[in-house]
Write the structure tokens for this entry.
Amino acid sequence: MTSIAYEKTRILQESSMLGRLAEIDLVVLDAAVSTGEAGERARRLLANRHRLLPARPAHLLLHAHSRQEEEQAHLAAERLAPLVAAVHLRRLSSRTEVAREALALHRLLFPGEEEGRRKARILLLIRRGGAGRPQFIAPFVGGAGTTCGAWTPIVAYRRGSQTWIAGTRSAREERGAEPIRGFLRGNYAQGVCPVECSFCYLRGLQGMGFKSVALNLEEVLPELERLPRGSVVNWAELGGPVEEDPWFVDEQGHGSLVQTILDLASERGIVSFFLTKGVYEPYLRLEGRLALLAISLNPAEISAQFEPGGAPPEARLRGLAWAIEHGALDHTIRLGPIITVTNYRQAYHELFAQIRAILGPRLKRMTVDILRFSPQMPRILRASLPEEQVTPLLREMEPQVVAHKYRPSPTRQLRLYRWVRLLLARYDLAHVQTTPCKADPRQALQFLKAGAISSMPCACHISYGLRAQLQRQPLPVIKRAPQE
């Protein structure tokens, strides 16, 4: 990458994803990840925060839970103090106290802040696993009653109270156990995504108000080594790992958490799936990596209203095009929920014209996401958003719950899927396969028979053929560039 290209990327970062870091005014760091490579990740984040807003640096809360961690905390405080307004050291008896301590300190430091905004302005840098053994990867088991739980590969088995990932136990143990379809969820970023989509299901989950990022990424190795080759791990389900990746990258493009996961997983034959409303940046090295990359996409008019923290749609498309050109194993677009705002049809025509211009024949598949809400979501939306945003979201929904969700009627869904196919044909993209995201399987079967969708893998998966190919070929050999 040329210096000019990187400078353009840096400017884009600061105007979109990296700029969101300036809204964090309290960083909470676990002393257990304050040294070594994990500690360097924390330092890079604080350096970026200081560079973005030097006149108002963030505060740092460093918490320790043992004598050894207390020593680590004092060393880290000395090293990080020049990057923050102040370092606040705490010895806590349990990590369950951290969130309460962070909120109490934030109230003390920023008494005028709206109470409902405090969690969004706090970032927790954690050790995954706390004081015990970390678990980064687990099967997603919530897809029952949707195409995610019916049309996807078997990823786990369950017998009684025990659930395990497919291929990690003997065939004898798997016989007679209940197979679970869905995906493997990887988790190092969790909580409030900076894009802040008003239709996001994370609004309905308890305990998701704090943004946390695990810094002990290398401790995922035992889990990666147990997975069958060709497995796909979805790292984008519970947070915004791509959107926030620039927070941890220095001005030379080193330090990417996404890159670390890609490298660790690829060397063991595991595919890493990332989905973003940000931009795949040119500091990423994708050649030879097993990267399944996707963007979630809406027209600019809908994006500006309903996903205000996302990158512009054109920037997302150009980031995906860059990734395709530079070695992504596979890619897809997840077309965001179609929301019938004023002039939405014209907005989608403009979006598909952009897709043709930027990706053209390279795009092979698209997952179409239809609005769907859990039963508690209407109440949550009305409590947190203005009515002019809530009304167009809810007026799409049928009055009853189907497959655990409020959804548009089957007739409405079929019309939307057909419209997407017409748009693809209109803009020379008729070759692109489409499939629904978490649709009701009975309804989706009718859409399939009507020719409105395909039965291809959804955004979270590669094809069975590509998986079989990865199981046969030699493991990638990753040549890493120096990080410092």
